[in-house]
Prior knowledge:
Layout: H1 2-19, H2 35-38, E1 69-79, E2 84-94, E3 99-111, E4 115-117, E5 121-132, E6 135-145, E7 159-171, E8 174-185, E9 192-202, E10 212-225, E11 232-244, E12 247-256, E13 263-274
Antiparallel strand pairs: 1-2, 1-13, 2-3, 3-4, 3-5, 5-6, 6-7, 7-8, 8-9, 9-10, 10-11, 11-12, 12-13
Amino acid sequence: MNKVLLLAAAGLGCLAPAIASAQSQTWTPLDNSAFASEFTQRWIPVPDGSSGAPRQGWLGAPDGFFTREVHLAYDFTDADGGDVDRVIARFNYPLSRRLWIGIEAPIYQQIDGSGSGFGDVGVTAQVMLAETWDLSINAGLGFELPTGDDAIGAGEVFGVTPQINVWTDLGAGVSFRGRASYSSRDESGADGFGLSLALGQTVTPASAEPLGQFTYSLALNWFEPDDAGDSQVSLTPALRSRIQGNLFLLTGVEFPINDDAGYDQRWIVQLVHGF
């Protein structure tokens, strides 16, 4: 499975130049006047919002914009059924100005008293619907693939999650992002409605040393199952800062605000490199 993921990532890298325009372009807002042609135009990094809020990923929060990045994350969950350690790799790549794909692979997971192994892979494709200097809106489909090992309770659920995502600059370096989604899974998983909301502020410029683009954020995630089961609600306060060049460090902690979540908190550390 690891070889398949590497080949898929390499294929995406080869496909993008083939469908993209060879001419370099200056970023312009996206509307519906040239929607079809923009599917074959090379992706152009979008400038920061008018108040300086960058389009950058946060922990626990959705992206309404496209990024070209690789991630390596570690999280530790203090869970009722045994502590969980995970290492997750992500690859985000815009194939054009209108089309983006992301791959998430839990390359290692260990559950105390149970076992360890490879987790279920997620693949997401998104289409940019509209984008201005201060607003991005996209829609997409996320797929949960049962690729993981039985020892960690993975490899059993296939799911599809249609979603719509938004990002906007609110002023003073503050940005808001949100996602509305619905997850449809096979008989091994839970169907339900999901909502993610996040607010944060970037308080230093990109040129600042140290702590360039230092950002604090708070994300709320809510999942409401169809089968009248218990809602799952969590909060994730987090920090993000530039280390050097296009390398960033993110840290945060996710904790549930419902009593029967099955865990007390999840500590997260993530490295992000843009290219």
